[in-house]
Design a protein that fits this description.
Strand content: under 5%
Helix content: over 70%
Distance between the termini: 51 Å
Number of helices: 4
Largest sheet: none
Number of strands: 0
Length: about 90
């Protein structure tokens, strides 16, 4: 029972963490709207999330892979918008 509960908690945490990037993507999407965002922070975040995907893959932990893949894609979109606006 505890293992099942742990999986649900991990899944909910992963879903919430992954979806938390959507408001930032919506704000960054219009051209010229990323002045307040740090290029270094976005690059580090995208790289860090990508490394979590690799870690999850190597450990065969698909909750870690899926959650961080969604986050990496969304953070990468914001990073792309920031680079576009330079």
């Amino acid at each position: 029972m505890l293992n099942e509960l742990t999986s649900y908690i991990g899944g909910i945490a992963a879903l919430l963490a992954s979806l938390s990037y959507i408001p930032q993507v919506r704000k960054a999407w219009p051209r010229g709207s990323t002045d307040h965002l740090s290029l270094g922070m976005l690059a580090a975040l995208t790289l860090g999330l990508s490394l979590w995907v690799l870690y999850g893959f190597l450990r065969h932990d698909w909750v870690i892979v899926c959650a961080n893949a969604v986050g990496a894609v969304l953070a990468g979109i914001v990073l792309g918008c920031k680079i576009r606006d330079l």
